[in-house]
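step 4 of 6: structure.
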Amino acid sequence: MSYTADEMMTIAAARQLRNGDVCFVGIGLPGAACNLARMTHAPDLVLIYESGTVGTRPERLPLSIGDGELAQTAAYVVSLPEVFAYYLQAGRVDIGFLGAAQMDRFGNLNSTAIGDYAQPHTRLPGAGGAPEIAAHAAQTFVVMKANPRSMVEALDFRTSGGFLEGHGTRQTQGLRGAGPQVVITDIGILRPAPGSQELQLHEIYPGASVEQARAAFGWPLQVANALQTLGAPSARELETLRALQRRSAIAHLHRQPLPLHLLDTCP
Amino acid sequence: MSYTADEMMTIAAARQLRNGDVCFVGIGLPGAACNLARMTHAPDLVLIYESGTVGTRPERLPLSIGDGELAQTAAYVVSLPEVFAYYLQAGRVDIGFLGAAQMDRFGNLNSTAIGDYAQPHTRLPGAGGAPEIAAHAAQTFVVMKANPRSMVEALDFRTSGGFLEGHGTRQTQGLRGAGPQVVITDIGILRPAPGSQELQLHEIYPGASVEQARAAFGWPLQVANALQTLGAPSARELETLRALQRRSAIAHLHRQPLPLHLLDTCP
Amino acid sequence: MTLSDALAHHVHDGNCVALEGFTHLIPFAAGHELIRQGRRDLHLVRMTPDLIYDQMIGMGCARRLTFSWGGNPGVGSLHRLRDAIEHAWPHALELDEHSHAGMAAAYTAGASGLPFGVLRGYQGCDLPQHNPRIASVTCPYSGERLATVPALRPDVTILHAQVADAQGNVSLHGIVGAQREAALAARTVIVTVEQRVESLPPAMNQIVLPHWIVNAIVHCPLGAWPSYAQGHYDRDNAFYLNWDAVSRDRQKFLRWMQDNILSSANHAEMMHRVARERAA
Amino acid sequence: MTLSDALAHHVHDGNCVALEGFTHLIPFAAGHELIRQGRRDLHLVRMTPDLIYDQMIGMGCARRLTFSWGGNPGVGSLHRLRDAIEHAWPHALELDEHSHAGMAAAYTAGASGLPFGVLRGYQGCDLPQHNPRIASVTCPYSGERLATVPALRPDVTILHAQVADAQGNVSLHGIVGAQREAALAARTVIVTVEQRVESLPPAMNQIVLPHWIVNAIVHCPLGAWPSYAQGHYDRDNAFYLNWDAVSRDRQKFLRWMQDNILSSANHAEMMHRVARERAA
């Protein structure tokens, strides 16, 4: 079966998750990867959405981080203060899943602004849960497409900390989790090098070349000595992902009739 | 109708409450007074038990602060951290109702120990909610029988603050509520004198004398210039109180059969 | 009491106002009515500004924004928010920017009557360099430094909820964000509800706002649309997707606001107008 | 897993152990089993020691007690606790004494992964003079001084709850005290339950402890008796009233413990023994 680079990226991300992991899920690519994993090899993955739904098992991907289906299919729902204090800050999350607009070689992320903070060229949505997910999850996974505008030599703004300046600086700044242990791009997977903690290309997707990868990064990309090639998506992975995305797209685009009859109850 | 001093005290306490007040209720005499008020002149009194039940409307007095009937008849139930932080500390309680083993002339209370703290002659249960009820309720009401062992010149231990040393010292110590505005005893009612904030006898029960009152206090009791005599209990007050106490005593002494059949579900 | 009367009475120009609701139960009808009433200089507070603040900011209601994530969830940018920050249109907007964990701690502190909240937060993050309100304390036991945020104490918190009873007790369920904390932190609380009933069943451990903290309740069905009310109607995801194109252009945005919000006398009329537009 | 096995495996002499439950859902069966197993030098933590800690202290299990109210609710004293404090019988007991608000803040800090809790507390109260663990911080915004308590992080928290599912998720309702915080603050969580079911219904905003924070679940009907389990059985108030006379005298207490707890192999046997005694 043929497949796109985006599909490979989502499937590669899903494969990083082990059955039983407790994942703190952001919206978009992380959500697709987590639910794909749950629907394939990791049925007992515990998904916590930052909207406070715990043990969520949606049939389709939510458009927002707080769609009703997330509450309906959750084991239970807690408040925002509780999900951040009692679950994330308390160290009860195994994997925090993050995306961003910019990443540097140490896995630090920017989702706040391109250009100057006070006078930004492009204002991005901002931090959300990211700084504390990055700090407290036992490890973080980052999912991002790689191109020289996203994989940059220097961030315009550091929204969440990866390995900071590398070489163990993260541990001295009170970031308790192990940081970005896996970065999944549309070309391959990066992992931190021992010692320096600089991210290096560790696995590459079938058909992609190291030259392609180097061209996609804004810094001189290091490549692991034993670079491996990841297996292509299986038919089951692809079919499950496509069915999930089909169900989701139909639901998102559905122009439901407005329930105007509810207005009639008003005096 | 004839009545006891205890009945007069409970009825006098109930009369201090206004319909709509939000009361933080302790166990024992305060609970009896609050529920009597709710069953007579103040049907919309909001009772919060420190066990976290809010808007509770029990038919009988609970033996403990956390009997099941308090949850069953509550508008809703919150956790202990919430009831203390979101309701009491946040200043959302009008009246905190306290009892104690010892009180001094400024309404400071001891429910911790008689004798030295480290080597007490009599160890009492301790603080419970009292220090923060005394600090945060918009005002506190104290209910205590008066005798020279309970109404003392100097406390063995200060568990909760009243007017501290009087003369406005309370306000400088971060106690935000107005303090013990009413102290209901089995002889009469005390209120703080303007300026000194020393408690003085303000209302006396029918049949009691100022001499009796003075003998019941371990300090030279001040008497208000315009000492008033409180009205005797009405028939409705007495009947409601007695019926409430009868229902409660029956329930407390009832030796229910042990539900041993539940053990059969165990493997 | 009508929504118009309640907001005219309780919300004044210059107030600090929180319309809370994390994706769910967002009080859109109330926000629209504040736009109709031409409120100005508001200090708006919300973890996720969402479309309702995009609209209020674009219509010039806001002077300052306290927030932690300003996007169109699952879609992309809030173009009116971006235009205010990037080009000061329709005028400049002061930012008091946090993380979700920081804002959750700030609401919790407000609800608890504490002057500040403590969190292990903002480590490795540049926000504290740009927001002087993010400070720190030292743990008196371990000597660790922890981040602090000042308590949020809105003048007015506005919520939408599923149901209220005759006495004014409000019940909500589903994703509840920091709504309860935002209400308990506020000086004044206004709630729009889908439904009114004579009395609520005993709620045990479910979420209730008691009548004595709520200042006004307005019966306002569909008051959270295009967000949703669990058990009543779903989120109108198509509206959120479509908002991207509407809001991207200043004139198109102003026309949409004129045609749908300003031209409608109230929320019910607006809903009918949107329905006609959608059918066309 | 039997209660005996779970406690033998997870609770060791010298541990800091919290058996929580505010009047409701007090894990009596677990406490009795710890007495049978002869645990020593425990640092016991509970807001309200209640009869279960009176029994454990009287039987010599405890070295230290963190608590905020040590009475027999509605009845009077805990005579075994008093005897330990007043006469060091059966041996001395270190006290770490707080108010309810202080302990609630300490559990919340523990559950939140913070090293300390902040409260407006202990003003005008002598406890801070006797408990050096009650300290203070200065608000970085207002300059106010606020009280602090060190986070509670029990080695083991033991709870009783109404129901658990096959996966190990635990659901509880009614008066819930600080149980959830005590569980989330602990390194190890053991729960006894009235009932086991295959799966719990979606709980929405109700209280659930997820399977991945619970280390052991034991099916133990009547495990909270003589306290109660809302929806299963009522509090045995007569037992609490009667305990005053039993516990007032050392020999009478020891005989009762021997006849009812120590002579019983397990909780079910004890319940039958109590029933026979009551019928006699």
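step 5 of 6: annotate
 - Chain C touches chain D through 27 residues (CB under 8 Å).
 - The first strand of chain C starts at residue 16 and ends at 19.
step 6 of 6: archive
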